[in-house]
Amino acid sequence: MSAPSPGLPAIEAPPVESLAPTPSRRLDASALLKPHRIVLILVALGLVVWAALSMRWDWLATYAPMIAAGLWQTLLILVSTTILGFLLAVPLGLAQAAGPWFLAAPATAFCTVIRGTPLLLQMWLLYYGLGSLFPLIPEIRDSFLWPYLRQAWPYAVLALTLSFAGYEGEVMRGAFKGVPRGELEAGRAYGMGRWTLLRRIWLPRAVQRALPTLAGETVLQLKATPLVATITVVDLYAVFSRVRQDTFLTYEPLLLLALIYLVLTAILVSLFRVLENRIPARR
Amino acid sequence: MPSGLELLSPWPPGWGMTLLAGFWASIQIAVGGFGCGLLIGMAGALGKLNGGPVVRDLLACYTTLVRAVPELVLIVLLYYAGGDLLNRAFALFGAGPVELSGFAAGVFVIAVVQGAYSTEVIRGAIQAVPAGEVEAGRAFGMSERLLARRIVLPAMLAHAIPGLSNLWLIATKDTALLAVVGFTELTLATRQAAGATKAYFLFFCAAGLLYLLLTLGSNLLFGRIEAYARRGQRREAGAS
Hints:
Largest sheet of chain A: none
Largest sheet of chain B: none
Strand content of chain B: under 5%
Radius of gyration of chain A: 23 Å
CATH class of chain B: Mainly Alpha
Low-confidence stretches of chain A: 1-6, 11-25
CATH architecture of chain A: Orthogonal Bundle
Largest interface: A-B, 51 and 54 residues
Mean pLDDT of chain A: 85
CATH architecture of chain B: Orthogonal Bundle
Oligomer: heterodimer
Number of domains of chain B: 1
Shape of chain A: flat
Order of helices and strands of chain A: HHHHHHHHHHHH
């Protein structure tokens, strides 16, 4: 153990990890045809039909383009922050697993702070805090970045990226440490330099180990995206908030919103299942 | 403009008291929600392990739905729709509309979310208890209740504590989401203080420090509890 022990316990598996399917949990048709399941499915279908017929859905046609735009914004934020966050998580994990203390300590502190405070607070700190400091600095006001920094989305992307990096950095720390020593020694025995060793063996093996938790982390990231609506980014959640304000409906918009997130989660989980099946795993 | 320390002091014109009151509200909601969530989780785990097929399927729906939908959406849904449903139910019995207190609604919402996660944690922990230990208890003629109290609960605790401590951290951080529905816990109190004084950076950092103190402190506590729960176990090689 060269790295200092982190303040928070290592997350080996996030809570939603069991959402990621294992082959045994895969749905087959015969499981749905048990008598009690048929009854439950009929009840569920009945509820859906009742909701479709007796609730008010006339606002859907008006707001459909806005909903589509919001969905696109949510997906864009999800994909960009996941990729950026992962790129940041790799050096964070590496620094904690193998770095010298002056790299490991800040990385550990960063992960502890990110994981120990609510994302909403981080987002508001960046948006209101940095947003109120930037205009006071003439260099920033005059720079080419200023038109972007006056909008909300850079802060949303930054907050979500840092959050993902904090959580995933912790996972990558464990993944880097978990790569068997023999594999690294074999690489060294072939005369690989440190960079080649990292690129050819250490990183691929660590990513492979982290992949099962990546599905869960990405679902968590999707579930964190609606927070950007609190700093005026118009994502899916913000569109539905607008619908609620305009139509004074309590149930319909929120139920549809929950359904859309449910479908998105299901799609994410099955995408990761395909990805995991394509990567050869040998235990 | 007053300096940072003056702004943070607990006496007016400082806003420290507002922050601390919000912090206390956050802790209360987190404790209430986590506690109620544990009860739901115990019931849910028992239902998943021992219940009939219908109970099991319904519980699977509950845990899957809650874990797949963003907490913020769940909180808004349960807060507004739940309040509306409650009032309709009261109206059926002829009672007037009630105003759901922010505290009760907050505890309820956090408990429903926590219940789904802790169901899975507790179910896994119960399943991790070696079958031989349970059988040994049965062989000594223990009744099911005695078996649960003397064997299963103490033995599963060691397996449940890491997951539950993670859930407690999630509960403390989820209380911040109640700011969105207008409940004055730490995050919203901070925003109010920051908005009034324009010292955004200072107040959000102070609130972050409070949250960090809470999470690091509770980590120490959970570490103690885990060490206590594991006192009878053989230490495995390589376990940190």
